[in-house]
Each structure stands twice: as C-alpha cells, then as structure tokens.
Amino acid sequence: MLRPHPAALQSLLEIHSSLRHLLAQEDSADTRRRLEDVSYTLCVSTGTRNPDAALAAARAQLAGVVSKDDARLSA
C-alpha cells in the first residue's frame, strides 16, 4: 500500500481538527460537507473505512515517522 507523505497527513489532521472546531461553533452545511470531504480523504490516504479509524491510523503513521526520524538523529 502506498503511504501519503507525512506533511500531507499532518495537513489533513490539522484541517480535520479545525473543521471539527468550526462545526462546534456554527453548524453549517458547508462546514459539514468540508469535514466529510477531509474525512473521506483521510480514509483513502490511510486505507481505512471510517473516520475514527482513519484518524487513529494517520496519527500512528505520523508517530512512526517521528520515531524513525528520532532514531536516525541519535545514531
């Protein structure tokens, strides 16, 4: 399976978080649609079928990237 670039995953997570916050402030059809779009993109990017699994997978992938980068720096 192809993996998205870590910067792209980080961006998707930040957009998702911002949209969830915005939706909590004002529930609009546009914000809901945008949140659905980014959730779908996260699912496709992580090979998952639901947004909660996609968020967990994206965070895990990023944590793995950080851990590997840290290991290279300390070597």
UniProtKB/TrEMBL annotation:
Short name of one Pfam family for this protein? DUF5133
Looking up InterPro entries in the UniProt record yields: DUF5133 (IPR033457)
* The protein, known as: DUF5133 domain-containing protein
- Which organism is the protein's source? Streptomyces rectiviolaceus
The organism's taxonomic lineage, starting at the top: Bacteria, Bacillati, Actinomycetota, Actinomycetes, Kitasatosporales
